[in-house]
């Protein structure tokens, strides 16, 4: 028998809004609302969307010494990211690596002055927490936050909408992470998201989550958006989906995530290495990887989806890669994919062939994002 | 109008039938983004996969409802797949076919039987 699906604090509201609910990472989550995937996607890009992302893991890493630098240094033993250099109330993207240099999960890391606040993927959160407990348990108190929902408000009107409830958010820059008061409650608000749009992710106590969501949804600018449109939005933004575009068998360099590994953690840096898989990852940073994650624009209208095999030409035998995410981009009004190709085929403008329903169709390697990002830097 | 258990509708027109997918099917599929039609003149057997449709979510096939020959296809869908979501039972027909054995049409579902199927 299937284990019972977990509910988020917004579960009843999602059903009331007419969401189609599906199982996702052990939770019952809204895949779309009555507007439908395409219109939800466009509503987010044109105005603002509200996403229930409460299934994601929220973790507090509190240094036993009371000095947040000790938590930062401890976390740096698990991520190839400059955590020590992260200023208070700032956030940064990172990932847990394994001993073979693969990716265990990707996450957001925020410095909240006295502790680090992490947001990790739903499907990985229990494993991530065990990993943190095992390696940081001596130096840090770890808490998986159980009683907080997480909502994302994304889109060019997100600032207008959220500022009606918390005027302070206007002053935030991209990747700021603050604690703001709303109705006497501390909300953890970051100016970030996973759609390529400006916006916020807001951690709110469970018993106030419905009130917050209703207050936002009552605004003309804000529409509820499901996981379906969240996927097409993040793909247009060129962002990886863990378990599809990155996993334990892909290294950060293969995944073209070099930008997330700051100089200080690289060879010659002040705190070079010292994370799992450092030998491989540092080696690939200087010498390159054998394959690379790229963006692809199919030549025709047919979407090239996850699992589609890629070839050098219309009649060559050996595959040169495969697609890991693909679909239709409502904003670009055409199909788009990302996937891995042998390094010889990773240059922008390279035309390769995808095998689709027994036919070889051309696709061109293109830079990502497919749509320009709209962050408030 | 007749229906299949695969959510297609068939509407007789002279000695041909017009074939599309039902509004119920279009709603379930979500916004269509790609349609690939067969060539006019193709001879098809019942349950042959003859049309590829893709929604924002996934790819699926439309099968030949009965034996026959494809006489005409609706090219407008290739340029505007979302027409299926807007007018599934009308303008968004997929193809017209000449049935090998027109009497087989009688064996398909009528409106009440189809309605019962999807309820």
Spell out the key features of this protein.
heterodimer; A: about 375 residues; alpha+beta; Gyrase A, domain 2; Alpha-Beta Plaits; Elongation Factor Tu (Ef-tu), domain 3; six-stranded mixed β-sheet; six-stranded antiparallel beta barrel; 8 helices; B: about 120 residues; OB fold (Dihydrolipoamide Acetyltransferase, E2P); six-stranded antiparallel β-sheet; three-stranded antiparallel β-sheet; 4 helices; 9 strands
Return the CATH class of the largest domain in chain A: Alpha Beta
- Superfamily at the CATH H level of chain B? RNA polymerase II/Efflux pump adaptor protein, barrel-sandwich hybrid domain
Overall average pLDDT of chain A: 97
Order of helices and strands of chain B: EEEHEEEEEHHEH
Shape of chain B: globular
**Strands across the major sheet of chain B, in which order?**
1-2-3-9-8-5
What number of domains of chain A? 3
Gap between N and C termini of chain A: 48 Å
Q: What ranges of chain A have pLDDT less than 50 throughout 5 or more consecutive residues?
A: none
Helix content of chain A: 10-25%
**CATH C-level class of chain B:** Mainly Beta
Instruction: Please name the CATH topology of the largest domain in chain A.
Output: Gyrase A, domain 2
- Topology order of chain A in helix (H) and strand (E) letters: HEEHEEHEEEHEEHEEEHEHHEEEEEE
Radius of gyration of chain A, in Å, reads 21 Å
The count of DSSP E runs of length 2 or more, i.e. the number of strands of chain A, is 19
Itemize the secondary structure elements and their pairings.
The complex is a heterodimer of chains A (377) and B (119).
Chain A: H1 11-16, E1 20-24, E2 27-32, H2 37-46, E3 48-52, E4 57-63, H3 68-75, E5 91-97, E6 103-111, E7 116-120, H4 125-136, E8 140-144, E9 148-154, H5 158-165, E10 177-182, E11 185-190, E12 199-205, H6 206-217, E13 222-224, H7 227-236, H8 278-287, E14 291-298, E15 309-311, E16 319-329, E17 334-342, E18 351-356, E19 359-366
Parallel strand pairs in A: 3-13
Antiparallel strand pairs in A: 1-2, 3-9, 4-7, 4-8, 5-6, 6-7, 9-12, 10-11, 11-12, 14-17, 14-19, 15-16, 15-18, 16-17, 18-19
Helix pairs in contact in A: 2-7
Chain B: E1 2-3, E2 8-13, E3 16-21, H1 23-29, E4 32-36, E5 43-44, E6 49-55, E7 59-63, E8 68-73, H2 76-79, H3 83-86, E9 95-99, H4 111-118
Antiparallel strand pairs in B: 1-2, 2-3, 3-9, 4-6, 5-8, 6-7, 8-9
